Amino acid sequence: MDRGQTPPPFFHISQTAGRTGGTRVDLHRWAYIGLVMALLGLAAWLYLEQTTEVAWYGYEVRQLQDRKERLRRELTALRAQVAVAGSLTRLEALAEELDYTMPEATDTSRRLVVEYRLLDADADAAGALPDAADTASGAGEPGVARFVRGLVGQLGEWFGVVSEGSPTP
User: Fold this and answer.
1) Which domain holds residue 45?
2) For the chain, what is the HEC assignment?
3) Does residue 6 form part of some domain?
4) Which of 39, 40, 69, 123 could form a disulfide with 150 if both were Cys (CB 3.0 to 4.6 A apart)?
């Protein structure tokens, strides 16, 4: 296009009077406008799609936060219920309802009493292992018994238990 010429209009209507004819359309400009409109429409659609997706994720985050808060409150309430159910006064009241009674300290029939006696102190050294001859013969009992006696004697020394045949410290 030269500088002296004006660009052709979108619609060209004949200026001559009495002349009938069709309107001329510049197809290049209409194609350009159509392409620009399509690109603007695509950009608007992408923007709205992303905005909708962000809004949906925000809604889900709020729902999860609300659920988390509800579960936290429920957990706190359950912990309080456990504390109340496990309190001594509650257990005593429940025991009274079920007619349970606390045993007396001197009542040996309602408490666990473990009686034991230490084996003879004629074991070799405390914690001695059985002899190879004792275990290899198949009879193994004398060596094993000696080992157990030694082990029990050592445990008794550690816990301060005095056996019947040993002198008191």
Assistant:
1) 23-75
2) CCCCCCCCCCEECCCCCCCCCCCEECHHHHHHHHHHHHHHHHHHHHHHHHHHHHHHHHHHHHHHHHHHHHHHHHHHHHHHHHHHHCCHHHHHHHHHHCCCCCCCCCCHHHCCCCCCCCCCCCCCCCCCCCCHHHHHCCCCHHHHHHHHHHHHHHHHHHHCCCCCCCCCC
3) no
4) 123
